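Exercise 7. Given the components listed, write out the predicted structure of the assembled complex. Treat all entries as one system.
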Amino acid sequence: MAQRNVYISNMPLDEALKKYREHLENPLQSESVPVKSTLHRITFGPVFAHRSSPSDPCSAMDGIAVLSERTQGANEKNPMQLKEHEDFEYVNTGNLLPENKDSVIMIEDVKPVSEGVIEIVEAAYSWQHVRQVGEDIIVGEMLLPSFHKVRPMDLGALISGGVSSVDVFEKLKVGILPTGNEIVQDLDALTRGKIIDSNSSVIEGLLTEMGCLTKVYSPCHDDPNALKEAIERGLGENHMLITIAGSSAGEKDYTVSTIEALGEVVVHGVAIKPGKPTILGKIKGKSVVGLPGYPVSAFFAFEAFVKPLIESWHGQMDEMSIHEGVLTQRVVSSLKHEELVRVTLGEVNGKWVVTPLNRGAGTTMSLVKADGVLTIPRLSEGIERGESVEVKLLKPLHTLSERLVVIGSHDLLLDIVADRMPMTSTHVGSLGGVMALIKDECHMAPIHLIDEKTGIYNISTVQRFFPNRKMALIKGVKRLQGLMVRKGNPKGIYTFQDLARKEIEFINRQKGAGTRQLLDYELSKLGISGGDINGYHREVVTHMAVAVAVASEGADAGLGVYSAANSMGLDFIEVGYESYDFLVPYALLEDFRVQRFIDLIKSPYFKTQMTEIGGYALEETGDIIEIGETYD
Amino acid sequence: MAQRNVYISNMPLDEALKKYREHLENPLQSESVPVKSTLHRITFGPVFAHRSSPSDPCSAMDGIAVLSERTQGANEKNPMQLKEHEDFEYVNTGNLLPENKDSVIMIEDVKPVSEGVIEIVEAAYSWQHVRQVGEDIIVGEMLLPSFHKVRPMDLGALISGGVSSVDVFEKLKVGILPTGNEIVQDLDALTRGKIIDSNSSVIEGLLTEMGCLTKVYSPCHDDPNALKEAIERGLGENHMLITIAGSSAGEKDYTVSTIEALGEVVVHGVAIKPGKPTILGKIKGKSVVGLPGYPVSAFFAFEAFVKPLIESWHGQMDEMSIHEGVLTQRVVSSLKHEELVRVTLGEVNGKWVVTPLNRGAGTTMSLVKADGVLTIPRLSEGIERGESVEVKLLKPLHTLSERLVVIGSHDLLLDIVADRMPMTSTHVGSLGGVMALIKDECHMAPIHLIDEKTGIYNISTVQRFFPNRKMALIKGVKRLQGLMVRKGNPKGIYTFQDLARKEIEFINRQKGAGTRQLLDYELSKLGISGGDINGYHREVVTHMAVAVAVASEGADAGLGVYSAANSMGLDFIEVGYESYDFLVPYALLEDFRVQRFIDLIKSPYFKTQMTEIGGYALEETGDIIEIGETYD
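Answer.
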């Protein structure tokens, strides 16, 4: 077994960034760029006007230019006639004021008398309707300060101010070097055991948004010599190099020793999670940052170190905006590090609710789904549910208030809805959704809960949980539940009894899921206990996850809906139809987000989509059942 | 005289936009783009995962892969030895889980015994430290909905989800056609009477930020046939055409008649100011928008019509964020139209203050300086000072709270300060600054106010205006005031008496300006009244504006500082030195923005810059004089 780098430090984020900044100088020089190419570039110094605008007095109106003195005495009782080319000239807006004229009379106030002769009934005062020299811009005036990112409207002022070229910061060139034997860059090369390089594109996109020039290198193998060569080349061709993966202390993590050999490791290991195994290095005065290989870690380490570094070189601070909300789930955290939790936000009954997403460092989808980031500081054990928290927003707030907030049971139909209207859905099972509704943490809970006595779905459960609140059940779909097994059913699974066979590996849904309830209901009828079934305690949270586990041979059987089995090409043993409905507080029925939802599921579009997927019946979809008060 | 299009309508904005939308169809088709080129593109439909991620079970840790069953029974008392290649395999994070293994033990929990043999003291459970298939992404899962603008983190999910190309909206192609005989596109062609085309670059920049492809055409002359040809060509080559200028009802405004001849004018004339003479047209199903020629009008008409139109085609709504503040000046408006007022914002004593900028439609600098836009609705006569208003922000709020808010007298040194620290300055003269301080509308007022009895600057005035409040005067500069006259003094102006000569045209500063006070003080000593001086009532608001008026021969003389005269190459007749100081409430002396200012004006950098400009003495710069309470 090869040597391992055992030690990596746990330096607080602020301290690490400060230390690293002190080790580096701004590598950027200025370059002169034609004014029309300066959009989004950053000024190197102040930019001054080379000429005034207007540069000559000109007419601010369509009309006639006159010498004001010549018009004195004109009034309603004593109209005055003026001759063209003698007393006046016609001018349009923007025209130069003719020689020996100091005033403009609007065309509306001019009465034509004959060819070349007009009449006025009011005297003009001097400089009336004339744009004076420098009214907009005065030569020598500072148009833009240093460190200013040029916007479209700035272009107008620069051009009007007679500026032909601007000194701006050259673009920062950043090399991106993915590492690892298992990394490939093309889908075609993605064989079993290989991992596709998604990190480089994310980091490249973030750098592009900051105005950098990027170059992504071919993945470097886990070989110290190859890595040394790649780092030297990457640094030679750029101002800065970012390596991805291999930054930790594992057997094949050569990055830290290579940087040490070529220059200096300023920091290795920071107290943030995800993102701990980050390397902040310096080689020949240039910055080399080693980002961890897990996608979320790489993202947060970039945001924590690379972004502020480049921003300070650009003299920019593009802070994220902050919004307050109430945490819907307890988040525990270690005292050791600052933890960055991806969250979604939604506005429910005038309150902003903050719901944590999956915290795994490998889950790229948690970054896609995140509306913001909640920071749990070092030396905190976490935050309790119900506490007010501040969230750094990743999306504009107004897009979030449009959202229908859905918490509860999962079904593929939620994807169809989410494609057509703003929605955030969290999958915690039917009971979890009911609990969230009780606490006003969502607008709507999709549920499918069977009453063990009556066999009727949903209604009695709602009555039990909301004895004092009027609720509405928006009828959803009837969906086919059954056992999913591999194509051709190689292990001959036909009944719930078969699940208890020793050689059968089951994959289960989490507690509180309607499908879990259905399983337990069926097992109890047969007198089978969970402990009798291999894999009973292996839980996943969606039908699709069950189907994938069976399809990828991680399990032999699972209970779930037909649509999931069908989409993964599995065989399906029908158990029966169940009602998957949408529970909302009655008072929210008129909410525009709920209305938009009802309109959508009643639309022909929705029916077509569901029919295509298969395994659903939609007779009552969109009907409203009132529950509570009237039911007593 | 040519024919004029007399009638243009005054349609409310909402109505005009709605009407125009109903006339147009979304011209955009989809195109398939390689996944790595999709940054900032907009999805045409939902994007689904083509593969799961991970696609095979893999190790979530560095360690050894085992079959969990094989480890049962291991504990501290009964350590268990395992053989490599028989009982376990070494794995690194991300490695494929080897055949017949279902669990990973972290390397930290593994004790090497001999070559190929290790010991464990705890049994593994199945799927421990294993990333299961689809843990991040499940095949068939919706990765991105329709109408989604692809962000860097989305690229990661697309690539991990096995997506190789994405259907996105093709880029909207927009032609930009400036019109007008006087318009030129290059500085070299900018002769007297010509106007440089700044609008095209601003509109191009705004379209670029929206992801459009743009083409700017050569300016089209005011000729109906040329315009017809240019519009037909521009529409043929693009999805949409924007013409600039010529949209009104003037003699040479041919745009509306040309569009009418080629297609349909849907709206001509909307009730917004600036922006009224906007044309919303349609030719062969395509959109042609005629923007007004004044820069600010063009900008707002673009924001009001073109932007929402394109956004709706993109399925995006990039709303500006809103912030509340207190208006520092009364704004009057006409009942007829919605008026868009450019404003600056600043945070003073915990209150946000909103100050209107120059409202002329031609002032590009008002767009550059604006922090936001205040909308005064139709049917409103305006808004009183002190009222709370909502402002659409053009800049992020956190950059605004950094600002030192300065209201008062103008000097060139404010440019030097503004280049080195965040600052907003409004030039309303010394007394205007004192008034703003009384109402807590700024942090600091630059003043130069002479006491007519003692000849001492500033201190007695401050005592008079702030009898009950402790103030501090930050000493600024002594600056040389004098009469500015044209190079060589062709009219022989040497004294204030000369200003009263019949052939002399004067240019004055506004009431409340310290320089105006100085003039009136000197004139009263000589028994000259303002009415005796030509141009006494022609007012501008800065020293530079006075200098420009003299230099451009709009006036023969003006009173102002040496630096302004010098920068415009004027002759200068010295009147004497005056004290230009900075007044702040004593309680604000410790404010970080005020401190930053004091540090800056005491710096060697500042002294060098001021010496270079000339006409200043800096002996006491940055000294603090306390006024009030202790002075009673």
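Discussion: Residues 58-131 of chain A form a domain with the Molybdopterin biosynthesis moeA protein; domain 3 fold (CATH 2.170.190.11). The CA atoms of residues 330 and 385 of chain A lie 4 Å apart.
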